[in-house]
User: Fold these one by one.
Assistant:
Number 1:
Amino acid sequence: MRDVRRIPVLPTIVVALAVALMIGLGLWQLLDRLPKKQAYLQQLAANPAKPAIPFPTTPDETLLFRRVRATCLEPTAIRKVGAGKAGFRLIADCRTAAGPAMPVQLGTTRDPKAQVAWAGGAVTGYLSHAPDARPLIAGLFDSTPAPLMLVADAPPPGLAANARPDLSAVPNNHLAYGVQWFFFAGVAAVIYGLALRRRV
């Protein structure tokens, strides 16, 4: 009876609740988030074979990799964005008849000083995520859909062609997240168990 009384009630309750929460988060990742992401990836894999659509006026994650067609009435700016091994992406911000600005990834270059003369016009390609200027921390708490961008099929002279749609660019980490939550729960339980053993 003396040993039982030495077990701190409040810390034990707190640790038990924390372990239960971590197990719940692990189950949520494996039983809810993972199947949804797998279904989403299957949809994205089928998108390139679907008929072309006009560039959407509002962001829609389900349209990633869809074929699109649009008209750039006037490029208001052409900017460079890092593209890893490809060097730089040149992205034109276009004025359209639909109203919202439309980013068009024209092509890539390894020359940091490269310039391109592009006057706009009809353009075809596929939908991808536009570069997100939000800080990483802000993105974690902002549920606003990421803006979309038209990745052009044919680059202007002087630029290399854009890469084809790559499904591996869409992360699917929910299995790893689930396993991590279970691991954290196990570590917390073991550490607290060892602490109780020393106390008793």
Number 2:
Amino acid sequence: MLNSRLRNCFHIDALCKLGLFLKRSALAVGLIVWATQAQAEYRVNVGDVLEVAVAGVPELQHRASVQIDGTICLPLVGTLPVVGVPLPQLQTQIGAAMASKVFRQRTSGGEKVIVIGADEVTVTVAEYRPIYANGDVSKPGEYPYRPAATVRQLVAVAGGYDIMRIKMSNPYLEAADLRSDSGTLWTEFAKQQARIWRIKNELGDRSQIDPVAMKDVPIAFSAISAIVNSETEYLKTKQSDYQREKAFLQRGIREGDDQVNVLSAQQKTEEAGYQSDLEELQKVNDLFSKGSLVSPRVTDARRAVLLSATRKLQTAAELMDLKKKQDLLRRQLEKLDDQRRLDLLRELQDASVSFNEIRGKLQSVGEKLQYTAMVRSQLVAGAGNKPQIIIIRKGEKGQERIVADEDAELQPGDTVEVTLQYQDGPEKPLQKLSSSSIP
């Protein structure tokens, strides 16, 4: 009785093992059939690398990339169009093209002539065109295709999902850096504001630079006071230097005018002396012609006229030179005001441009701070849902967008877009620049 039960158990165990073996065999056969069908249905496209081999002729084994024009180039055949052709049909075409071709194979015994048969040619895909990962993955980019690859496997190769894809390795550190940038920009904002007020004051606007007017700037009041005091001292220094330069030119003009008056009086005296000497010469010449004077007296009179004429010309030249210098000083005095105003207007323009640039940067930093705050709140709350996966595949009718899941199988050339969806957190209002802080 016991032996009978044992035999029944053995039979049952054997039947179970046999059933498991048959199931595994059927599964293996099914996978082989599926792989064969997938290979047979696959159509060649640009980017694939085909391997063509001839049985018994290793020299003719050749790999060829499908070019952008959809062709490949093979020995003994030349250029063939291959895009969109299934692999079995392509093998038949290449076999027919190479059929009856003569290949001379060199061996140790000499040269051997081989006639290629169509059924001796095999065509396989050595490398499929790559697939692409894009979106919320750690390493988006191009990856080689592997048969039966799934979205889950591609995401794993791309480093997994990554909610910090937008150049934000750590929202807490990023927020700290942004707050530091914000403080620096607000300080520059206050400096440019005080600078604009100082320039306008130099241009004639008598408004006072008051630290209280910048109460809306979110930096320490002591820092604001230091900025305002610095601009105030700079304003005093520039105005003092301007006044000294202006006083120097005005003093030079006054002194020059005095010299002009002196030289003008001297010129009149020189002119009177010249006329007197000239009349004396005329009298001496008259007396000399009558024999009343000797020639040395005439010579002395001529020398006196020549000397008077020389002094007259020298005084005239000095007067002209002095007047020219006076004109230059007056032009410098006029130019001092004009050039100062032009420089101040140019400086005001540059300061206004810098002020607006800083305002734009502050707005950008404020938006980034808002975004990092939202990301931090999502990280703390664990607000992640299943990813949204879109496969972009080129079909017969053009590009197709296929909604898929992580277990979807990929095809060569697919682009997988991954989007992680989050719960919407409460939005915080951006910090605005008040109108009172704008000069």
Number 3:
Amino acid sequence: MVNVIKLRKGLDIHLVGAAERIKRQLAGSGEFALVPDGFVGMVPKVVVKEGDHVRAGDALFVNKQCPDVRFASPVSGTVTAVERGERRKVLAVKVKADAEQEFADFGRKDVGSLNGQQVCQALLEAGLFGYIDQLPYAVSTTPDTKPKAIFVSALRDKPLAADFEFELEGNETDFQTGLTALSKMAKTYLGIGAKQTAKALTEARDVELTVFDGPCPAGNVGVQVNHLDPVNKGEVVWTVDPSAVIFFGRLFNTGKVDLHRTIALVGSEVKEPAYYDVLVGQRIGDATDGQLKEGRNLRIINGNVLTGKPCTADDFLTAHTSEITVIPEGDDTDEMLGWIMPRMNQFSTNRSYFSWLLGKKEYKADARVKGGKRHIIMSGEYDRVLPMDIYGEYLIKAIITGDIDRQEQLGIYEVAPEDFALAEFVDSSKLELQAIVRKGLDILRKENA
């Protein structure tokens, strides 16, 4: 019998601009880039130089702290640039794709006959191991961390999130192979949503299946870890994006690194929200060119509206991007008597506007904060949208004050910045909670290194 966990805390935000379940083709500029910032916590060491020719699957850079962890080129072609920022930080390694793609051959493997060490070695050789993250610290992991369990969440429930079941169509065999490969390295948990019906999910083998029934953020892998096997000090769990599970399966089934995935172009400022088949590292403008509405200042977000980062059309999709979101900046919006108007078309979590009278409705959101930073208000706001067995407000205060002992007591080892995305959205104090949590995790990681 499948384990079902019902969650009551959380918040579903319904926004205009969800993707229609159709796939559109991209013309493509032929320029790709692997972005190290997509692999959080990893310090890159570039192993190619401008003018080098690489195959799909050849390493572009490695983890400086653990050189065995390589990061594969998504395409074959010529390295055109190694972009650097302040203090020579590597921003991106760009590759101009060949007309005919050439793949490094890592050999097909029968996952069922492999042990955990052989699976790990195969992922390292192919430059895919870095797609595995870990808790604590919410960073790209290394093979020496020895996890007690591996977690995969196939439920995406943030506003305008891409539907993984749509991406899964046609990739069912590779997904199962990837799950089996993960199960060789540690006990593997697969979390799905109550409304998901794909047999590749509901009948998945070699995993412990759990159904999460509740509002966002039930799909957050950190929430699922908290309810199934919480992380204590000294313990490690690995977390894997479901798209990366497909990458792993393709490697074992074909012997090639194939980083094709399906993403959604969504948001109120997109003419025709839909899905696109892309490669990791594809130029964002390949999807947005000709698809954005005109006449307003727009914010393009590389990722989700709650957790993604602002970008431009000339930036590139990162390793874990599942959607591109486009919303108005809102800096050209004028509201006469805005603070006193009933605002029937704006979303409110505490019924400050009369829009709640309209029931379930899709709203058009913009990027305005609508207020300045204030003193932190201990009002229980975070707890209403944080379905984890932690005291969110007290943890944030401990991070701000730098009280490491208190952070450990309050459960910082089992959280990721995205777990506080909804709390940041509803926060009356207008604090950047995800940035605060990220800073706290980075400091704690250095302290424990």
